[in-house]
Structures are given as C-alpha cells and as structure tokens.
Amino acid sequence: MIKIVYLMRHGQTLFNELKKVQGWCDSPLTELGKEQARQARKYFQSQGIQFGQAYASTQERACDTLEIVCDLPYQRKKGLKEWNFGRFEGEPEFLNPALPYGDFFVYYGGESQEQLMQRMNDTMQAIMQEVNNDLPTLVVSHGAACRNFMRVWEEFAKTDTHQRLGNCCILKFAYEDEKFILLEIVNPNEAEKK
C-alpha cells in the first residue's frame, strides 16, 4: 500500500527573524509565522486534504505550527527535532561555516550531518510503520531536518530537490516498500521575505 506523508517546516520564529542559529533551542512563532501556518492550512483545505494522523517535533515552534494547520490530536517525537548545533545555538547565523556542514558541529557539542540524517530517517520510518489507514499523514519539523531527510531519499525524488524550503514549506512524499519518494515541494507563502 502506498502511503502519503506531508513533511512540513514550522512557521517563522523570532530567531528566524533575528537571523540567529536555532537548533535544539527554541523561540516563539512571530505573527508572520502564525500567518504562514494559516496559509498552509488554507492550502491543505483548498486541495481537499484531510489527515488521518499528525506528528510534530517536540519543539514549541513545530507544535504551535501544527496546532494552527490541523485540529487533530498529535504525537510529539524527539526524533523530528532540528539539527543540534551545539555551542552555536542562539548565535548569529553569520558564524555558520560554509556548506556542507558535515561534522563541524560535533566539535562544539552538536550533531553531525550523518547523525541528523539517520535520526530523521529512523523517526520517519517508525512513523510510517505506525500508520494503518489510507489517509495522509502530517509531520511538522524543521528546515535543516527536512532538507537532510530529503537528502537521504534524493535519488528517488520526482521533483527538483534544490528548491528553497521556506517557512511552512510542504514536502509531499509517497511511502512504499520502506522508501520515501519526494513527489512535490509546495511553498504556500511564496511571497514571504526570508
């Protein structure tokens, strides 16, 4: 059976607005972030998409986004958290090294890119094993977490994986035979400013 899952980034936060590194630390959604979540909700409604189940990172910004987007009770999963940037948490984004980050943050108490990819994939696999109905699943996570999960399955993607993942962007995956196939990337807030 093919299952559909929508993996979504949270709305804009105060740290996004201030251009601060935001991994395992947290900051609240801005008014724009709440509006972005409402636009995502409108997108799902306009497409007639009804979810059977919902999951979010344990971080406040992801939970708050999900609660605006969907009225379902949901499960919180630590494995959906953002990349752990160690001592760089809360610091200005300009301090980040050039991409790819690889193991950089490990030396500062954070995670490697490989650890993040493995954690996200393990969590998404476990979620899809729990799903026992034909309705789509909503998962709300974070920018780097979503991007790196996409990288795990890039070879199977049916769309351009180099698109910008704005706040509240939506990644539509098909899941079959323990494989995730990226079908579409939707940015319901195209006019947003980064």
From TrEMBL:
Molecular function GO labels: phosphatase activity
Record-linked SUPFAM superfamilies: Phosphoglycerate mutase-like (SSF53254)
Positions of the catalytic residues: 10 (tele-phosphohistidine intermediate), 82 (proton donor/acceptor)
Binding site for substrate: 9-16, 61
Any GO CC annotation of this UniProt entry: cytoplasm
Pfam families for the chain: His_Phos_1
InterPro entries for the chain: His_Pase_superF_clade-1, His_PPase_superfam, PG/BPGM_mutase_AS, PGM_Phosphatase
Database matches in PANTHER family: BROAD-SPECIFICITY PHOSPHATASE YOR283W-RELATED, HISTIDINE PHOSPHATASE FAMILY PROTEIN
The protein, known as: Phosphoglycerate mutase
Organism whose genome encodes this protein: Enterococcus cecorum DSM 20682 = ATCC 43198
Phylogenetic classification of the source organism: Bacteria, Bacillati, Bacillota, Bacilli, Lactobacillales
